[in-house]
Amino acid sequence: MAKATGLARREFLLGAAGVLATPYIVTPAQAAGQTDERRLSFHNPHTNENFDAVYFSKGQYDEQAMREFYRIARDWRQEKEVKIDNRTINIAYNMQKLLEQSTPLMLVSGYRTPKTNRLVHGATHSFHMRGEALDITHPHVSTSMLHKVALRIRGGGVGYYPSEHFVHVDCGPVRTWRG
Ligand SMILES: [Zn+2]
After folding, report:
1. Ligand 1 mean position, distance from CA 171 (Å)
2. Could you tell me the CATH number of the domain that includes residue 44?
3. How far is the CA of 161 from the centre of ligand 1 (A)?
4. Distance 155 CA to ligand 1 centre (A)
5. Is 46 helix (H, G, I), strand (E, B) or coil?
6. What percent helix, strand, coil does the chain show, rounded to 5?
7. Which structural domain range is residue 114 located in?
8. What distance in angstroms lies between residue 112's CA and the mean position of ligand 1's atoms?
9. Which among 51, 87, 136, 159 has the fewest CB atoms less than 10 Å away?
10. Tens digit of each residue's pLDDT (9 = 90 or more) over 89-113
């Protein structure tokens, strides 16, 4: 497990203390299945591809939309794609929802083959190699805000990379670190 740095830990405690204490909660309407549509939009700056689709509705994942997402989140260096974990896609969805931005999220890194992971100096057992991690940025939102939003969701791992302007999210154990 990555060691939480001072700042990352302070941010985390800040959240626990109340400023961002409320984790994302399903509203009664959503719980009743009235508005369960989950729409996600992403831009991949490496390939200049876009994803914008309702990937979940009426209690089901849309196969075609999911395949489109796997495609945009592929290892573009090696042209290989895998399934991206639903839980990680849902974390991205919740981030987009909390940010209330109509501009798409930007996908810095999705799936990585071991070869690409070595090339970018990823962690030895990176969740990116399992299709369980996404590195995300946004053209109109600070990395600090993206980080706060990701922590609030408590969906898994959250890595804060302020100098590289992105936040890593994965569906592994809840933990946080600063890159
Ligand atoms: Zn990452």
Report:
1. 11
2. 3.30.1380
3. 9
4. 14
5. coil
6. 35, 25, 40
7. 6-16+34-138+155-178
8. 10
9. 87
10. 999 999 999 999 989 999 999 999 9
Domain count, the chain: 1
What is the Å distance from ligand 1's center to 28 Cα? 33
> Separation of 63 CA from ligand 1 center, angstroms?
25
The secondary element (H helix, E strand) that includes residue 99 is helix 86-99
Cα distances (angstroms) measured from residue 63 to each of 55, 82, 132: 8, 14, 18
Mean pLDDT along residues 107-121: 97
Whether 11 is in a domain gets the answer: yes
Q: Percentage of the chain with pLDDT > 70?
A: 81
pLDDT higher than threshold 60 for residue 174: yes
How far are the Cα atoms of 14, 32, 47, 84, 152 from residue 23, in angstroms, in the given order?
13, 19, 33, 23, 5
What is the CA(147)–ligand 1 centre distance, in A?
Answer: 13
- Centre of ligand 1 to C-alpha 31, Å, is 31
